[in-house]
Amino acid sequence: MNTFGQIFRVTTFGESHGVALGGVIDGVPPREPIDTDALQRYVARRRPGQSSLTTARNESDTVELLSGIYHGLTLGTPIGYIIRNSDRHSDDYDAIARCYRPNHADYTTEARYGIRDPRGGGRSSARETAARMVAGGIASQMLARRGITITAYTSAIGPVRCEKPYTALDLSAVDNNAVRCPDADTAARMAAAIEQARGEGDTIGGAVTCVVSGMPAGVGNPVFGKLNALLGSAMLSINAAKAVEVGDGWELARARGSEVIDPFAVTAGGDIITTANHSGGIQGGISNGNDIIVRVAFKPVATLMRPIDTIDTEGNAVTLAPRGRHDACVVPRAVPIVEAMAAIALLDSLLASNKFTTNNGETIQ
Known about the structure:
Blueprint: E1 3-4, E2 9-13, E3 20-26, H1 36-44, E4 63-65, E5 69-70, E6 73-74, E7 79-84, E8 99-100, H2 106-113, H3 129-144, E9 149-157, E10 160-161, H4 184-199, E11 206-213, H5 227-236, E12 241-246, E13 264-266, E14 272-274, E15 282-283, E16 286-287, E17 292-298, E18 308-312, E19 317-320, H6 331-352
Antiparallel strand pairs: 1-2, 2-3, 3-7, 4-7, 5-6, 8-18, 9-10, 9-11, 11-17, 12-17, 13-14, 15-16, 18-19
Helix pairs in contact: 1-3, 3-6, 5-6
């Protein structure tokens, strides 16, 4: 599958070392304003080569819009776009064309299709997520105009955790450091952990926390198509993502019901709210109007900068020498990808729940 979504549908194409990546977005209502400069800045947050903590591959990730937007407004027709690959070192992957790298998609892709593009992992490369950023950027602009904001941040790198709750953090400071943790002291320790792993030819995992504010109550479905399930599917489609929790997640498995009740209250304006948020803004598969809290765990990068014992395609034992340009930790660059996939999933769910009002004042049915 190369398409995500039911109404707001995103199809991506391209490989890591191909000529370009790209996508087609369908289901966007007409006359939606799109700030293309803001879109480019959004996409650039994910690009490689931003700091010493990331891969040295240097791509501008310039978005070329091909269709669907005219004079800054959506036409209601498919939005097509490409992002060209300019910094390709394909010869770095000559050796692995005949080998299976442990914990990569080399073997599984060949088992699935009988063929694979070994250059940078081909379609399985995290480079593919650049195409998702365009869709996420467009979805984010549409959501923001309706009072819905999405902010993600690095909440763990290996054993280093940001212990403060998101409500005690200045989420506007996420991009103030290379690891994208809004707590400066924790960010410094996270950066040190990444540098230590890199210096040892190793890699390290971590986690991203995503906060969604302004989502109205009533989005999602009670059985199939639960909002938490759609968000989980979106997050687990990101490279290296291995686990997702909503709200207190695994902590709920260790608690008693009396400890994690989210009591109801009525505001002065007559709105019904809950005064706690153990559920993470979703109950029964449907949003309850509180902040939606999603955490995503990312495994350590599988490519190590040290010799790795493995087998070749004939089953012979071989040793792969370290080569290529790779992240020692994907988490800082995963932060904007988490935001993008949340935006795509939430806009699609909003459209499907009859909660989306167009600029003409019409409700999408």
